[in-house]
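My current task is to audit a protein record that another person submitted. I need someone to confirm that the token line plausibly describes how this chain folds. Take the sequence as given and treat only the tokens as open to question. This is what I was given:
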Amino acid sequence: MTKKTTKKNQTHTKQEDSGASAGSLAQLTQQPDDGKSGRVGAQLRNSFLTGLIIVGPVGITAYMVYSFVNFIDSWVKPYVPEQYNPETYLPFSIPGLGLIFAIFIIMVIGATTANLFGRSLVSYGESVLDRMPVVRNLYRAIKQIFETVLSQSGNSFQKVGIIEYPRKGLFAIVFVSTETSGEIADLCSEGEPMLSVFLPTTPNPTSGYLLFVPTKDVQILDMSVEEGAKLVISAGLVVPEQKAAELIAENSA
């Protein structure tokens, strides 16, 4: 009985060992397939994301440029005389032709207004606009905006800062325009210097709020205006790198 029981136990153990070996073999044969498919899937996903990062900005930029060129072309081309329009003699259209003519016309107007005759003509035109009740206010506002933005001597939007807004403990990015002056400074400053700052909205920094803030409440940052705009547009995802000197000082501290 003892020998038979021992043989049965040995046989049962061998069957278990063979079953375990078969199970291990099955697992070994399955794991490489699962791992390989997982690696292939990860590689495909990474390749897609990498391509999207490269193609996305290029595609959006190309689309915006193409749309802008088509808009200028559709606006300027109808006013170009046929004898000066190459498309009259060519069997295909030339994209950007209207933009080229627009740039040329603007340069001619700028060169014309540089002399005495041009300045006199512009002054006469502005005097005519000043007699129009609604148009004159619109023209003055637009002209002031263009002169401020395009002036080479202006220092608009050269600094980025943060202020506590909309309440204490919360901070917001602002673009410093200039020092506050005039009636607003006299009424609000109480003898303290103030800054005129633009508080942009996310993700569209072209809209926002004009705020007049005491200079002591504005913390000027080292980042450029372009870096600040990227930070606002990306909703905080694209953070500009700190200056090397600050990193060295932090590491040494």
Observations:
- DSSP finds seven helices and five strands in the chain.
